[in-house]
Every structure is written in structure tokens, then in C-alpha cells.
Amino acid sequence: MTTTGWLDGDVALITGAGSGIGRAVALRYLREGASVAVFGRELDRLQSTVEAAGADADRVLPLVGDVRSADDLSAAVAATVERFGKLDVLVPNAGIWDFNRSISRTTPDEIGAIYDELFDINVKGYLLTVSTAWRELVKTEGSIVMTLSNAAYYAAGGGPVYTAAKHATRGLVTQLAYELAPKVRVNGVAVGGLRTDLRGPESAGLKDRSIEQSFAKRDGERGPNMWLPLHDASTDPDDSTGPYVLLASKRNASVITGTVIHADGGIGVRGFATAAGGDDL
Ligand SMILES: NC(=O)c1ccc[n+]([C@@H]2O[C@H](COP(=O)([O-])OP(=O)(O)OC[C@H]3O[C@@H](n4cnc5c(N)ncnc54)[C@H](O)[C@@H]3O)[C@@H](O)[C@H]2O)c1
Hints:
Layout: E1 11-15, H1 20-31, E2 35-40, H2 43-52, E3 60-64, H3 70-84, E4 89-91, H4 108-140, E5 143-149, H5 160-180, E6 185-191, H6 211-218, H7 242-248, E7 260-263
Parallel strand pairs: 1-2, 1-4, 2-3, 4-5, 5-6, 6-7
Helix pairs in contact: 3-4, 4-5
The site of nicotinamide-adenine-dinucleotide (NAD) has 30 residues, from helix 1, helix 4 and strand 5.
Pfam families: adh_short
Keywords: Aromatic hydrocarbons catabolism, NAD, Oxidoreductase
Protein name: SDR family NAD(P)-dependent oxidoreductase
């Protein structure tokens, strides 16, 4: 096979790659010439990513496991290296959302339960993913690209638990970039709202509800995304994959570490009366 992608010959391991942004990044990395191990809780979801890869399916390795299990992750790293010979790029991405459960609308018991489950997956899961894989990344002088969120910077991308968890992962980018330099670069992509299958904590009865349903309710008369400066910023996860390619690329990002790219339609430059100042241009 001859490709001219930015990740030619690289090997990536992506958690939560059976749907949403993880799957979109896996398919994009394939198009950029990488081989990808896709890790997630449910085999049928991972198989759908393999099927979506089409002719490139031989470069996809589905691996079932839970990011709360160091054993599952260690086995996944070993299986990736056994199949593809090395690991260049790690994408900690698997996560859940708290469906904006606010402090005033939850009991102390509820907030505690949401915290335990969500932090276990969204924060400890990222730590364990890195903890089990960093040695392989040192060997290849590879990199880590973490999925962050607008909630790593701003209010109202979730409730207090999700917002705190995403702020925590922003801290992981900073600290791990320091700890793993100079051999391994560590960066993040703060994606904005995406129409995915993002679910909530089982402990709050939100396991079967998806963020897509929340978006559908919110579209209203203004239409999707009109609160963003880039009104037509897509919520198709594939449109957010470019920064993941750039940050993973040894050729194009060799001097970039500890950085987060905001891929959120411009939330940080939103105005007061209107979302964008140039609507009459
Ligand atoms: N959808 C959005 O609006 C949005 C916005 C900002 C950030 N994010 C972040 O993007 C990341 C991916 O979410 P998504 O929107 O693609 O949702 P998604 O539900 O489509 O993808 C998340 C994947 O992680 C898997 N997963 C969940 N818990 C797991 C566990 N314990 N072990 C292994 N796999 C597990 C799920 O099965 C799913 O396939 C998350 O970190 C999320 O916080 C999403």
C-alpha cells in the first residue's frame, strides 16, 4: 500500500473508539496512513469501526476492555505491540457526561455517585491509559493526544462533576508533558459539542441516554450552533479530527507539547448581544 499521509507507518491506540470522536479519529488516522488499535467496552461497537474502515480494515485491531481496569489496558498495549510491532500515538478519549446535573438539582448522595463513576472513567481512565502505555511511547519517541472539552475551560459544558473532570484532564496534559519530556509529547484537543452517543453515569440512571438527544431538544428555532461565532461549526465528529492528526504528527508537531488546541467553533470569542460580530459582512 502506498499512502502519503501525515501518520504513514505509525501505530495508534485509541480508547472509546467504537463510536463518536474516538471512532472518527481512528478512521482519520487510517486515512493518514496509520494502523490503529481501537479499545472500548463493547465488541459490536468496535466491530462497526472495523467495518467502517472498509479496505483498510486489516490495519484495525479491535480490543475489548474497560479503561477503569489497568489489566485490560496493559493487555491492550501488549496486543497492539504484538500485532503492529510498536506504539507511536496514544489517544485517551473514552468518557461519559453528566447531562448538566447541577449542584442545586442533585442530592449529596447523587453528586457523590456521579463523581465516583465519572471521575473513575474520565480521569482515572486517562491516567491508567497513560500509565500502561508510556514505556512503549518512549521507545518510539511518540506522543499522547487527549480528548479534552470546552468544559476543560468554560462553564455550562456539563454540570460541576463533568467540568471538574475535564479541568483535571487539562492538568494531566500539563503535568504529563513535563514528566514525559523530552521523549514523549503530550497534548490535547478541546472539542466542542458533538452529536455523538455520549452517555451518562449508570449510577444516575443515565446510561441509556445520549448527548445527541439533548442536542435535538436544544436546536429550537435558531437552529444548531447559532450560539457559536462559527455558526456553522459542524457537530460531525470527523470535522474535529484535524487537530488530532497535527498533534500526533512527528513531522509537523515535533516542537509542540503541553498544548491544547481548541476545536469548538470559537466559544472563547463569543459576544454578548450576538454570538458573532460579523453577521452583517
Ligand atoms: N460529544 C460531545 O459533545 C463532547 C464534547 C466535548 C468533549 N467530549 C469528549 O469526547 C470524548 C468521546 O466522547 P464522544 O462524544 O465521542 O461519545 P461516545 O459515547 O460516542 O464515545 C465514547 C466511547 O467511550 C466508551 N466508553 C465509555 N466508558 C468506557 C469505559 N469505562 N471503558 C472503555 N470505553 C468506555 C463508550 O462505549 C463510547 O464508545 C469523551 O471524553 C467526551 O467527554 C465530547
